[in-house]
Amino acid sequence: MQPFRIAVPQEDLDDLHRRLAAVRWPAEVPGAGWARGVPLEYLKELAEYWRTEFDWRAAEERLNRFPQFRTEIDGATVHFLHVRSPEPDATPLILTHGWPGSVAEYLDVIELLTDPRGHGGDPADAFHVVIPSPPGFGFSGPAPEAGWDVPRIARAWTELMRRLGYGRYLAHGGDLGVWISLTAAALDPEHLAGAHVTFLLTPPTGPEDLEGLDEADQARLAHLAAFETTGRAGYMKIQSTRPQTLAYGLTDSPVGQLAWIAEKFRDWTSGDSISRDQLLTNVTLYWLTATAGSSAQLYYEMADMLPDAARRPVAGPPQPVPLAVAAFAHDGSLPVRRIAERRFPNIVQWSEFAEGGHFPALEVPELLAGDLRSFARAVRAHEAAAEQPKPAPDENV
Description:
Elements: E1 2-4, H1 10-21, H2 40-52, H3 56-64, E2 68-73, E3 76-83, E4 91-96, H4 107-114, E5 127-133, H5 150-163, E6 169-173, H6 176-187, E7 192-197, H7 215-229, H8 234-239, H9 243-252, H10 254-267, H11 276-289, H12 292-301, E8 323-328, H13 337-343, E9 347-353, H14 360-363, H15 365-387
Parallel strand pairs: 4-5, 4-6, 6-7, 7-8, 8-9
Antiparallel strand pairs: 1-2, 2-3, 3-5
Helix pairs in contact: 1-2, 4-15, 5-6, 9-10, 9-12, 10-11
């Protein structure tokens, strides 16, 4: 494992600014708003802010406050943040982002998780935090070959935690990180003690899943169905079928990359819960690492697991360890508990939040950190109960 520090050459930033100053803008249908995609005036203003006011060096400095490393696993480069808690008995925790997220997504929760004592919390709730970039994303760079699907990434994560010396740990995932975390838990329950997810899809697989649902649950299913069958899922369709064709435009045009990501941040949040600087840190990270296309390749690799109106998605592997589900009100889709519990009988914590959306670590970091602490306590209680000796059978019965 080699220490890593982000140091983007100034010529790369100069090139970005030059491209932003020479954009060829498209026409727009008058009055369309967001119905046909990102509005022209919105994007012009955001691109100009990116060119003239956004400070990548400040974002870079903030990222570099935390120890970072790169290592090779199964032939691929893996970049990760590894922040140990000042509490020696802290619980190891691996956090996995999805698309269009990055390691920068978790910056606001790192200190809340690693140093609860310093934030008015209980030191018993501390975590040692590991935040990797999946191959294809960010400073991990493109995957070296085809076949880097969810199970392969999950196996890489279990190997990463083994190399770091963590014999027992928890996993958290959002977006594509949900599948990765659930799969890692299924592959290595001897070491991965529990999984916490914030974006669990629960499409019905048969009529039995629709029995007894109230209006709120039915509304959630209707919202999921609309997501799958309308243009809101367009990004998923193209990334899972033609990621290489898409890559040329996104890799060559910073405004193209900006629009592609900004639309999702607006769709999957309350709309104003993430600052422009937070959004642009994420977009810039994709741009500077030229990983727009390589990150989309993961959708191609896992196409059979994605929601599709013509078939049902894979529900995910059976979970032999405790599972926590957190639903944030403004996410792109919300899970139905009755359906989830049929598929995942090991759910030990279910949380519903009126705030936050698809990126809770950015939007409501305190709520996410609190939910992770609560889950770690639930896992410890579950393990303690499992270790209790079973009572001897009553010979008189």
